[in-house]
Amino acid sequence: MLPIARWLMRGTPYAAGAAALAAVVPWLFWLSAAIAALVTLRRGLAPATPVILGAAVPSGWWWMQGDAIPLASVLLVTLMAVVLRSRMRWSEALIAGALAATGMVQLGIFLPPGGAGPLLEQARQGSPEIDRMLQDLAGQGVATEQLAALLIGGVTGLIVLLAAVVCLALARNWQAGLYNPGGFREEFHALRLSPRELVLLVVLGVVGMVLGFPALAMLAWVPLLVAGIALIHGVIGLKGMNGLWLVAFYVLLVTTWPMILIVLLLAFIDTLANIRARIARSD
Question: How wide is the angle at C-alpha 22 spanned by C-alphas 16 and 25, nearest 5°?
């Protein structure tokens, strides 16, 4: 896709037009967000504003139709691109994105029009088993509509945040391919949370659970997960291992929950022990 990125960077009208066109087409919002992020990373927020608006205006129309995901993705990836450009630290960009996504979930922008109630009613009518389960939960004092809203908003927010991270990585890869070949690989392989950032994430997770902000408790661990993924990439790169190891890793990551916990644990340990530096010294 590097030739496409090179064409986009020929001028603002090219990038703005492509971002708008991609935002109009269903399920191409990720490309629109990546284009906005690419221009933001390269030129800064002010010069990239026409491109961001080109992506945001059609995405706003989708929001009016009941789909907030495209606009949320554009806003999240733009925020992370601004932080990454100014601070040059992936970890800070990821934390900023997690906090912004939490705010979106708490504001309820990912809930369907009318809230979770109509969806629950449809589920009750479509499945007697679900109806009985909801009745049992209600009998135990659980606010089923509130629980459904939390699940819908939280899961959607998690997916949007992960999609925004992928879009930012794509944009950064384009930028490196055009102006600094190999730079993205080196940067991503070195991604590691500092102890202070790890403590911040732990505090945010605890605060979310104690004060009743479950979205914060859920999304605060996304930066740690991405750092763990970067650790795996870095170790495989240092060892010169076959790329099939990465394929197997992602298959396990997507299909098995224990693998996610292992990656989180490895990222936690890496913050304290700097695993990649130890491997480099031993080699």
Answer: 145
Closest C-alpha to 216, from 72, 79, 105: 105
**Cβ atoms of residues 175 and 184 within 8 Å:** yes
> What does DSSP assign to residue 114?
T
Other C-beta atoms lying within 10 Å of the C-beta of residue 113: 7
CB neighbours (10 Å) of residue 99?
Answer: 14
The C-alpha atoms of residue 109 and residue 4 are separated, in whole angstroms, by: 32
Range of 69-83, 102-116, 142-156 with top mean pLDDT: 69-83
CA nearest to 15, candidates 136, 175, 249 = 175
In contact, 36 and 19? CB cutoff 8 Å:
yes
Q: Which residue has the higher pLDDT, 169 or 134?
A: 169
State the pLDDT confidence band at 134, using cuts at 50, 70 and 90: low
Give the per-residue pLDDT at 128.
72
Distance between CA atoms of 267 and 92, rounded to whole angstroms?
15
Cα 22 to Cα 70, 108, 131, distances in angstroms: 10, 26, 40
Angle at 77 between CA 75 and CA 81, to 5 degrees: 115
pLDDT at residue 211, rounded to an integer: 86
**Confidence class of residue 94 from pLDDT cuts 50, 70 and 90?**
very high
Residue 161 has which token pair? 């945040």
Q: Contact, 276 vs 235, CB < 8 A?
A: yes
Instruction: Find out whether 46 and 61 touch, Cβ atoms under 8 Å.
Output: no
Please state, in angstroms and rounded to a whole number, the distance separating the CA atoms of residues 5 and 208: 39
DSSP state of 191: -
